[in-house]
Amino acid sequence: MKDGKFLTLGIETSCDETAASVVADGRFVMSNVISSQIDIHTQYGGVVPEIASRKHLERINDVIAEALSGAGVKAPELDLIGVTYGPGLVGALLIGVAAAKAMAYACDIPLIGVNHMHGHIAANYLEHHDLEPPFMALIVSGGHTEIVNVPGYNKCEKLGGTRDDAAGEAFDKVARVIGLGYPGGPKIDRAARDGDPDAIAFKRVYLEPGSLDFSFSGLKTQALNYLNTEKQAGREINVNDVAASFQEAVTEVIADKAVDAAVRYSQKRIVMAGGVASNSRLRYLMEKKAGERGIDVLKPSPVLCTDNGAMIASAAYYEYGSGRRTELDLDAVPGLEF
Amino acid sequence: MKILALETTGKYGSAAVIDDEGRIFCASSGEEMNHLRGMILLIDEALVKAGAGKDELTHIAASAGPGSFTGIRIGVTTARTMAQMLDLPCIAVSSVEALAEGSRRKASDEGAEYIVPVINARRHQTYAAAYAADQGVKALTPALAEKQYMIEDLLEELKKMISGREGASAFFTGDGIDAYGEIIEDMMPEGSYLFADESVRYQSAEAVAAIALRKAAEGATVAYDELLPEYMRLAEAEQRLKAGTLSDRIRTAKV
């Protein structure tokens, strides 16, 4: 406690971001340090787990120190430590978990293991200070594309998810195919702004009627086929058009299904989360389609969409408030479900 | 002086506390590769056995490798973070040297000339060294440098060192015995070698603590952010990038 505020440190190392943050009362970000490894992994065309693990170890302690000093807080003043224990890359997760446990033990601070996906949803509590459950959540990232009904804090009922590639994965794959490179999400978003979304007729994959699931793996094949056909016909390829058309096919289906879920469950709000929630076209379509049905769309600012420690701190705060405790034998769980 | 020493580079994790007089209080896990779940509990158990509080610790030592990459990271991260929070200096200990330290008395009692710690690094590779077998309390004297060896190359080196001598001269220890025992038996002259019992064959925080005590006395400490793993190997993708053979399999790793 400091100045009457409950202080939570959140630690996040599930993929290629080493992050730590101090959050007051579960809602107010006092510091948010994110050390990205993206420059290192770019030369390999994607995240290399062994290298990610090595870099997390080298950076984690400095990131924690910066988060504390940035918030003007000393470790013993913390009331709680929250750490992502899954899902994610096991070697990456365990750096955060080992550091969090050592810190909790050394300073006698309670510990909460946090589900990374609950963290992404909780990012919205940091952005919208009055937001409370219930609401519908749409999580779109490099590893996830999920529609989740959220009846209470950290209570998640998964209604649909991807059957093959996550949305972010599809962006990365198609970006590679059309030569935009890694990371695909932001690069396609940028290229699509100068392209025609109706130039190429990518299929909208809605699956069986009423399904809230997704399938994106066919889009890469479609993109490849299109490129081959054009090449054989000797036509020049407009990368911006391919990016815009592909992006439209992905984001339209996501937005339609998320709005459909909110209507069916009578939710008046849809909360967006995950790295792909930063995609400008998805944000636009969500607001348009939800607005037509009288549904509000909330989204965190881009810095809170990416993996960060603040969202983990917020989720930990509400877990702690519900009476849950994590013991010091916490393990990393790479395939953790909602 | 009270040093907390961690060992997580092998199959079984352990933590030990050593005091000025060299008394060691150790807690070991009976479960294989249980490092992440077990480490804090082992640390607490070792401190309770030593009757010491966290605030009485003066140094944190870790076996920094080589060995299991994941194991190394758990031990080093735990040590770094405890040292950061308790404002203590760190001591890095080689897992290979610690293996030798653990068998030092035994090797000397058996009349061996060299202790040869061998850690299995798969595909005939090892992390290994050789030290003079003595009863001493000072630092071990290296006879073969600690590095990566193909098991066959290591054995050729050892054969040169003991050629023409009578009796069992090389005392092998480490999980390299489990992996390459038959190769050692095939290549080494009969009666020229011994294998450590399973009770002392694997890494233990007791030996890490003993080496750490000597290093602390010499002032060989580092700040928490300078305590780094000794992997002895680049990540596979880094090796391939250097060699120009980075495969599509790695390039298409899920992100």
Q: How would you describe this protein?
A:
The complex is a heterodimer of chains A (338) and B (255). Chain A is an alpha/beta fold and 338 residues long. Chain A has two domains: 7-126 and 305-321, Nucleotidyltransferase, domain 5; 134-301, Nucleotidyltransferase, domain 5 (2-Layer Sandwich), CATH 3.30.420. Helix content of chain A is 44%, strand content 19%. Chain B folds into two domains: 2-95 and 203-236, ATPase, nucleotide binding domain (Nucleotidyltransferase, domain 5), CATH 3.30.420.40; 104-195, Nucleotidyltransferase, domain 5, CATH 3.30.420. In chain B, 38% of the residues lie in helices and 22% in strands. In chain B, the strands form two sheets. Chain B has a five-stranded mixed sheet, sandwiched between helices. In chain B, helix 5 crosses helix 6. The longest helix of chain B is centred in the N-terminal third of the chain and has 18 residues, at 69-86. Chain B starts with a strand and ends with a helix. In chain B, 51% of the residues are buried. The model of chain B is unreliable at 249-255 (pLDDT under 50). At the A-B interface, helix 2, helix 3 and helix 5 of A face helix 1, helix 2 and helix 8 of B.
